[in-house]
TrEMBL record:
<feature type="transmembrane region" description="Helical">
    <location>
        <begin position="242"/>
        <end position="264"/>
    </location>
</feature>
<feature type="transmembrane region" description="Helical">
    <location>
        <begin position="211"/>
        <end position="235"/>
    </location>
</feature>
<feature type="transmembrane region" description="Helical">
    <location>
        <begin position="177"/>
        <end position="196"/>
    </location>
</feature>
<feature type="domain" description="Sodium/calcium exchanger membrane region">
    <location>
        <begin position="9"/>
        <end position="147"/>
    </location>
</feature>
<dbReference type="InterPro" id="IPR004481">
    <property type="entry name" value="K/Na/Ca-exchanger"/>
</dbReference>
<dbReference type="InterPro" id="IPR004837">
    <property type="entry name" value="NaCa_Exmemb"/>
</dbReference>
<dbReference type="GO" id="GO:0008273">
    <property type="term" value="F:calcium, potassium:sodium antiporter activity"/>
</dbReference>
<dbReference type="Pfam" id="PF01699">
    <property type="entry name" value="Na_Ca_ex"/>
</dbReference>
<keyword id="KW-0472">Membrane</keyword>
<feature type="transmembrane region" description="Helical">
    <location>
        <begin position="132"/>
        <end position="149"/>
    </location>
</feature>
<dbReference type="GO" id="GO:0005886">
    <property type="term" value="C:plasma membrane"/>
</dbReference>
<feature type="transmembrane region" description="Helical">
    <location>
        <begin position="110"/>
        <end position="126"/>
    </location>
</feature>
<feature type="transmembrane region" description="Helical">
    <location>
        <begin position="276"/>
        <end position="294"/>
    </location>
</feature>
<dbReference type="GO" id="GO:0006874">
    <property type="term" value="P:intracellular calcium ion homeostasis"/>
</dbReference>
<keyword id="KW-0812">Transmembrane</keyword>
<feature type="transmembrane region" description="Helical">
    <location>
        <begin position="77"/>
        <end position="98"/>
    </location>
</feature>
<dbReference type="InterPro" id="IPR044880">
    <property type="entry name" value="NCX_ion-bd_dom_sf"/>
</dbReference>
Length: 322
């Protein structure tokens, strides 16, 4: 086991660089955008919203470039499962999570539709270039639609938008903002490659496939920004931000993060993705919907515990079936 010490340390370093680099890239990009007169609404709904999914995007791109499409797609599916079952579960255990009617009426159905789309794309066990174009086009349409909807909500004084806009940095000089953009652009690929290379070393030691690597080690690592954002949101009483962050991240992951490896490296994917992992992702998504539709319109601590148990059972099954 001593031969795993260095890969484990390098994996942690790579993950830290990935998360920190994404944060600095978002900080610098948002500051530059504000300095050049782009509205806070546009910055919030594009740069800030995509910030938490930046690690998944970079890891999937790096994996696809390395010919590991199973790892890239496994990262998407595994992250979405972790977002709902682990992160929302932990968040609800810390503090029961209220789900607003707006999220139930709009964001949750959208997430389910996009999840079904992922199943349709993976059905033939092939991720093609044209499917990548479709996903990226839908991602662009999603961003435009969210901007339109958010603009109307902004007129009604939406608290969530005000909170999001308050996170945009002010008074940052262009030189400083550009410096952090460059730092982020350097650290993201360096961290992504360190994470993948050392995760592969550790996983191969235990006989794990490329797919299981993406579904477990990498998916958990790249989901850390969502965990931090959701816990911080619920502790501040901003339940919509905590839930919306997870649902938005899942939509981003399927449309953008799955679209990237399809464009970079169209190839066959493991039948297990459609035969096993898609149904787990769909199952926890439907479970979340039923919990949100309950009388209390919230996820309580018991339901949070059920979600976390589902995640642990799934992870256990993956390791048991290796």
């Amino acid at each position: 086991m001593t031969e795993l010490l260095m890969p484990s340390l390098l994996l942690i370093v790579g993950l830290s660089l990935l998360v920190w680099g994404a944060d600095k890239l978002v900080f610098g990009s948002a500051a530059l955008a504000r300095n050049y007169g782009i509205s806070p609404l546009v910055i919030g709904m594009t740069i800030l919203a995509m910030g938490s999914s930046a690690p998944e995007m970079m890891v999937s791109a790096a994996a696809a470039l390395d010919g590991k499409t199973d790892t890239a797609v496994g990262n998407v599916i595994g992250s979405n499962i972790a977002n709902i079952a682990l992160i929302l579960g932990i968040t609800a255990i810390i503090k029961p999570l209220a789900i607003s009617s707006g999220i139930i009426r709009r964001e949750l159905p959208l997430m389910l539709i996009v999840t079904l789309l992922a199943g349709g794309i993976m059905y033939n066990n092939y991720l093609g270039f044209n499917e990548g174009l479709l996903l990226i086009a839908l991602f662009a349409a999603f961003i435009i639609a969210m901007l339109y909807i958010s603009k109307s909500e902004q007129k009604n004084g939406d608290n969530l938008l005000e909170e999001q806009e308050s996170e945009i940095p002010e008074g940052v000089e262009n030189k400083k903002a550009l410096f952090w953009v460059v730092v982020g652009l350097i650290l993201l690929p360096v961290g992504a490659n360190m994470l993948i290379d050392n995760a592969v070393v550790i996983a191969k030691y235990f006989g794990m496939s490329d797919l299981v690597i993406g579904l477990t080690i990498i998916a958990l690592g790249t989901s850390l920004p969502e965990l931090a954002a959701s816990v911080a949101g619920v502790l501040k009483g901003e339940d919509d931000m905590a839930a919306g962050n997870i649902i938005g991240s899942n939509v981003f992951n399927i449309l953008a993060v799955m679209g990237i490896p399809a464009l970079i490296n169209p190839s066959e994917i493991s039948p297990d993705l459609m035969g096993r992992d898609f149904y787990v992702m769909m199952g926890v998504s439907i479970l979340l919907l039923f919990m949100a539709l309950g009388k209390s319109r919230s996820i309580n601590r018991i339901e949070g515990s059920i979600l976390v148990t589902c995640f642990l059972a799934y992870q256990g099954y993956l390791f048991y079936s290796m």
